Input
Amino acid sequence: MILDKDANANKRTLMDKIWDYVVDKMTTAVIAKLGTTNKTLIGAVNELNSNKQGALKNVSKTYLADKQGIITTEIDRKAIIVSYRSNGAIIKPFVSSENNYWKATTSFLSGNSTSNMNVYISFFYFE
Output
């Protein structure tokens, strides 16, 4: 039942007509306060879905540190490393202009160098 204000009476209506009205409003109504470039409800949802971050990835392996204690990973420099860990080593990730991959300086907790040594590290990152 829908109130007809002109006739001041309740009238019967079909559910599909109400549904069509709601769908039309969702697809065409512009909501200026949305924080997306597309200001329609459906367009904003589609934009947010297409912008979502990829799945969290992990690589865990033994790296051979060079003579300065630096390792080079296979993680693209555009990735975002969110966490890393190693048993017995201090890890300091960084990117350099010399290649397209993340690197990390490594040293033992005691402060001793990991020069030319194997270091087991786990990286967690988003691409």
Notes: Strands lie at 2-4, 9-11, 57-64, 70-76, 80-86, 89-95, 101-108, 118-126.
